[in-house]
Design goal:
Order of helices and strands: HHHHHHEEHHHHEHHEHHHHHH
Shape: elongated
Number of strands: 4
Bound molecules: arginine
CATH topology of the largest domain: Fumarase C, Chain A, domain 2
Oligomer: single chain
Strand content: under 5%
Number of helices: 18
CATH architecture of the largest domain: Up-down Bundle
C-alpha cells in the first residue's frame, strides 16, 4: 500500500474505515487532470530551485505515461489505494524512485483535487454544451422544415390559439440556448486555479501560483488559499445549470409523450427511436421522451443533495467535499446520454401536419382573432369579448366550429362584422397576423436567424 500519510500512525487503517472513506472507486476519472496538476507543480518546484529542470521534465514525462496507463486500464487502483492521488503516487514512486519523494513538497491533496476537478469540468462541461448545441440545431432544422405547419397553441393544456409548429419548436430551442449559456457560465466559473493553496494556507517554498495557473491553461490563480480549497460553488453552479436543463428536457419529453399519443396524434416516433411491449404486441412507446422527463428528477436530486452537503461546512477543506464528484460525474454522464437521444428522437420524428391543422381549425381557437377584429372596427374590447363569447356559445351548441358561422350568423351578434371578417377566420391567417414575438412567418424567420447565430457562437466557444 502507498499511503500519502502514515508517519504518526501505528498500524494500518481499519479495512472498514478505508472502505468507507476511499474515493479511488470513482475519482480515477480525474487521473489525467491529477497527473497534469502534479507535472505543473513539479515544474514550479524546479522554478523555485527545489528540483532540477531535468528532474521536473522526467516527472512530467513519467506522469504522461502514468496518465496514459490509467486511461487504458494498464494501471488501475488497488483495493487499498485511498484515492487517485495515492494511485499516481504509487506509480510515480515505482517508475521514478529517486525523484518522486520530492515532488509532493508544497502540494496537498486539498489544492490538488480542487484543481483537478476544475480542469475536468472545463473539458467535460464544454463537451456537454457541444451536445446541447446539436440538440438545439435539430430543433431549429425541424422548425425550418415546418414553417407552414399550424397547430393549436395551448394554455392549461386547453386549445388556445393557433401557432406555427416552427414557433412551438423554437420555444423549446430558445430555452435550451439559455441553458447552454448557463452551463458555459458555470464552466467559466471553474476557470481559476487553487494550486499553491496547499492544504489551506499556501506554502513557504517560494512557489508561483500565477505561473502554475498559466501552465495549467487556467485564467487566473485564486486570491485566497482558504477559499481555493473550500470552494465548490463551481460544482453547485454546474449542477444547477444541469438541473434546469434537465427540467427543460423534461418539458420537451412530456410534449413528445403527449403528441405521440393516439389522443393527440400530432407526431409519430420512427421505429429506431421507440420501444415495444413484451406483452402487448401493438404497443409503440416513447421511452426516450419518458426517460428525458424522468432524468430531471435525478439532476435536481444531485443539486439538492450537494447543496445540503456544502451547507454548514466550516472553512476550509473537509472530507465532506469528496462528495462533490459522484453527483458531478453522474450529471455529466446523464447529459451525455440524454442529449443525443433526444436529438435523435426529434430528428426522426414524423409530424402529422394534417392532424395539427385540423385541431387548429376546429373548435373556437379563432375567438380571440374575432374579438380583435371587432376592436379594429372600433368596438371596446370588453364588449367584443362578450359578443364573441356568445358566438362561441352558439357554435358549440350547434356542434360547429367558430369559423363555420356565416357572416349573417356573426352579424346577429354585432353589426360591426363586415364581409372582410372571412379573411381572419383561418388558423394560418391567425398565426400570420401576429408579428414578433408571435407566430407569424416573418417572426419565425427572425427567430431562426437569431438562433442560427447563437448556435454558431456556442460552437465557436466550445470548439
Ligand atoms: N479524495 C479526497 C477528495 O476527493 C482528496 C482530498 C483528501 N484530502 C484530505 N485531506 N484527506 O476530496
Amino acid at each position: 500500500m502507498t499511503r500519502l500519510w502514515g508517519g504518526r500512525f501505528e498500524g494500518a487503517p481499519a479495512p472498514e474505515m478505508l472502505a468507507f472513506t476511499r474515493s479511488a472507486g470513482f475519482d480515477g476519472r480525474l487521473a489525467r487532470e491529477d497527473c497534469a496538476v502534479l507535472a505543473v507543480h513539479a515544474r514550479g518546484l524546479a522554478a523555485a530551485g527545489l528540483l532540477d529542470e531535468d528532474q521536473a521534465r522526467q516527472v512530467a514525462i513519467t506522469l504522461e505515461g502514468i496518465a496514459a496507463d490509467l486511461g487504458s486500464g494498464r494501471l488501475a487502483a488497488a483495493p487499498d489505494d485511498e484515492d487517485v492521488h495515492s494511485v499516481v503516487e504509487r506509480a510515480l514512486l515505482e517508475r521514478l524512485p529517486d525523484v518522486a519523494p520530492r515532488v509532493r513538497a508544497g502540494l496537498s491533496r486539498n489544492d490538488r483535487v480542487a484543481t483537478a476537478l476544475r480542469l475536468w469540468l472545463l473539458r467535460e462541461g464544454r463537451d456537454v454544451v457541444g451536445l446541447l448545441a446539436d440538440l438545439i440545431e435539430v430543433l431549429a432544422q425541424r422548425a425550418a422544415e415546418s414553417r407552414e405547419v399550424v397547430l393549436p397553441g395551448y394554455t392549461h393544456l386547453q386549445r388556445a390559439q393557433p401557432v406555427r409548429l416552427a414557433h412551438h419548436l423554437l420555444a423549446h430551442a430558445f430555452a435550451l440556448e439559455r441553458d447552454a449559456r448557463r452551463l458555459l457560465d458555470a464552466v467559466g466559473r471553474a476557470d481559476a486555479s487553487p494550486l499553491g493553496a496547499g492544504a489551506l494556507a499556501g506554502s513557504t517554498l517560494g512557489l508561483d501560483p500565477t505561473a502554475a495557473a498559466a501552465a495549467l491553461g487556467l485564467c487566473s490563480s485564486m486570491e485566497n488559499s482558504l477559499d481555493a480549497v473550500a470552494a465548490r460553488d463551481f460544482v453547485a453552479e454546474f449542477l444547477a445549470a444541469a438541473a434546469i436543463l434537465g427540467v427543460h428536457c423534461s418539458r420537451l419529453g412530456e410534449e413528445l409523450v403527449l403528441w405521440t399519443s393516439e389522443e393527440f396524434g400530432f407526431a409519430a416516433l420512427s421505429d429506431a427511436w421507440a420501444t415495444g411491449s413484451s406483452l402487448m404486441p401493438q404497443k409503440k412507446n416513447p421511452d426516450v421522451a419518458e426517460l428525458a422527463r424522468a432524468k430531471a428528477g435525478r439532476l435536481i436530486g444531485h443539486l439538492a443533495g450537494f447543496l445540503a452537503t456544502l451547507k454548514g461546512l466550516p472553512l476550509a477543506y473537509n472530507r465532506d467535499l469528496q462528495e462533490d464528484k459522484e453527483p458531478l460525474f453522474d450529471a455529466v454522464d446523464t447529459l451525455r446520454l440524454m442529449l443525443p437521444a433526444l436529438a435523435g428522437a426529434l430528428r426522426t420524428l414524423e409530424f402529422r401536419s394534417e392532424a395539427m391543422a385540423a385541431a387548429a381549425e376546429r373548435g373556437a381557437l379563432l375567438a380571440t382573432d374575432l374579438a380583435e377584429y371587432l376592436v379594429r372596427k372600433g368596438v371596446p374590447f370588453r364588449d367584443a369579448h362578450e359578443i364573441v363569447g356568445r358566438a362561441v356559445q352558439r357554435a358549440l351548441a350547434q356542434g360547429r366550429a367558430l369559423s363555420d358561422l356565416s357572416l349573417e350568423d356573426l352579424r346577429s351578434f354585432s353589426e360591426a362584422f363586415q364581409p372582410d371578417v372571412r379573411s381572419t377566420l383561418s388558423a394560418r391567417a391567425s398565426a400570420d397576423q401576429r408579428p414578433a414575438p408571435g407566430p407569424s412567418s416573418a417572426s419565425v424567420e427572425g427567430q431562426l436567424a437569431r438562433l442560427g447565430r447563437a448556435v454558431a457562437e456556442l460552437r465557436a466557444v466550445v470548439s
